[in-house]
Amino acid sequence: MLGSEWLKTRKRMIKLYQIVLNLSLVILSLILIYCLFKELFYILNDASRGNLDVHEIFGKVLIFFLYFGFISMIVKYFSENYHFPLRYLLYIGITATIRYVIVNNGDTMRDLWSAGVIFVLIISYQLLPPPETNKD
Asked: Is Transmembrane given among the entry's keywords (predicted)?
């Protein structure tokens, strides 16, 4: 008797946590969409004014794609039935680090450490088991 009540309570708590998580992700995605369009406005504004500072424009483009990456992570979470595969986090980590190197180049040691980070992420990706494929 006591075990079945505990199991029901546990299932209710898991359901509640899932609802809170999903609601939080929806709110976060709305905030990120707002920030994405705000950054796009800044990029288009710089382009229309003829801003020639390449590093400033690349920095804004980097931020734009980071927002885009986080929004796509949230979409992937919902499309994978409330599961986010680790390989997508590694994809995002690799591309974000490469974008960081492109925008913030110049310091050789920092670039070397960033290359090491990319290398570790690629090795981690290679160590993952292959994705499951549905052969219907």
From this structure: yes
Q: Specify whether 21 is located in the same domain as 65.
A: yes
Helix ranges (H only) for the chain are: 2-49, 54-79, 86-103, 108-127
- String of b and e for 76-107 (b: at least 16 CB within 10 Å)? ebeeeeeeeeeeeebbbbbebbebbbebeeee
Question: Which residues form the domain of 45?
Answer: 12-83
Q: Which two tokens stand for residue 94?
A: 């690799």
Q: Say if 118 falls within a structural domain.
A: yes
Q: Are residues 101 and 123 in the same domain?
A: yes
What does the pLDDT look like over 54-77, one tens digit per residue?
778 888 888 888 888 889 888 988
Task: Give the global pTM.
Answer: 0.72
- Note whether residue 2 is domain-resident: no
**Under 8 Å between Cβ of 22 and 82:** yes
